[in-house]
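Recap for those who missed Tuesday's class. We walked through two folding examples back to back. For each one, the amino acid string is listed first and its predicted structure tokens come directly after. Nothing is annotated here on purpose, so try labeling regions yourself before you check the end of the notes.
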Amino acid sequence: MTRFAARCPAAAHAFAATLDDDVTLDGASGHHLSRVRRLRSGELVTVADGNGTWRPYTVTVVRSGAVELHAGGERVVEPRLEPALAVAFALTKGAKPDLAVQKLTELGVDRIVPLQSRRSVPRWGSDRAGAAVARLRRVAVEAAAQSRRARLPEVDAPRPLTDLHGHPGLVVADPAGDDVGRVPSPPEGEWMLVIGPEGGLDPDEIANLGAPARLRIGPHVLRAETAAIAGAAILTTHRATPRDHPR
């Protein structure tokens, strides 16, 4: 049996707190599956706990706003891709952070870190930050269901760029950087890709990060959210499941 929920021929994917033999999905998930996806009794769905474990289920009952499921197989633990991948991107205006989180989740990023840098235009105060991060986490859950991930990415509260100083796997997006094949493997198992704001990172900010690797994403000027997505996609091509690594 496949170890990835995305490779199971299911009609839909959802998340639940527990993966018991019988599960009822209500709330937002139940509404989506019953009213939007219009699932029917007998269809196969996969359900994950958000921490890497998933299970196949058969729909037994569909009612308004809820679906009832019965397990059709054992629990499966989805393997982690290695190295781990975190993306720290400078905050941008409007719905752009939502787009970045959505696409980074679909790409399999493990951790998403909104950044405050010197040239960042948006400044989230403590009141706004709480609501904004909650929204980004909802976006991540929806994108993880769409892409059928068993693990939800961590979405951090906004942090200053200086917090990343000393991270052993720092990679800064840089038009004059190296091809991905020359970016070293992270010594502690996690790449931390750093994306600056529209005006780029201040040279002093980059210097204060230490000696990060530099990744060339392409020849053109990219919007911050596009650079985050493109950089994550490039690094993802150099990740693998543990059994795929040479011994």
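Example two. Treat it independently of the first, because the proteins are unrelated.
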Amino acid sequence: MTALAGNAGSVLITSGANITFTSEAMTDAGDHINYQITNLVKQYWDDSVAPTIEASTDSGSTWHAAPANTVQYVNGRVKFASANGSGDLIRASGKYFATATLATANEWDLSLDVNMVDTTVFSDSFKEQVPIMISATAKVSQFYVDNTFIALMASRMILVLYVNATHHYDAYAYLKADSIKDAAAGVITEDLEFDIAGVLYYN
């Protein structure tokens, strides 16, 4: 197995207010069920605003509402309950967040944990447990620049953790802790801790 170089990673976060997008084309994954917004700059949708999904069966001359079965707001994807026609066009309107690279980041750490509930009863010889829910936290280490993240404490944002140029983990997350360290023999560093809110996606 080939090891992956850590310096190929990076961190993106959303910043600022949501931005409206209108009638953006969506790309068919090939199964006519799963689609992703074509313009990936607009792929991180605001999940407080339900998108409008429309379909056209006549090459875009007319459009009709086509509610998706599920919406993946992180990555701007929709899934239909059944396949559309092979030539159908799909478009979306809604609101998205712009992302910015955390240029001073030098390390990230993603941890997943399963909440296990003890179900041991009398006469059991060994402890019994049932997995209930998965939780995840992320830590990002960076060189300190200013008090930007202190002002964002408890804020909900989209966090994108790149493994390399093409693979990344994406999720909504809350910034829950900010630790700043100043050493006389070094540089000022800042550790950010996030609680993942909802599903963590690997893309």
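Answers for example two:
The chain has a mean pLDDT of 94.
The first strand starts at residue 10 and ends at 14.
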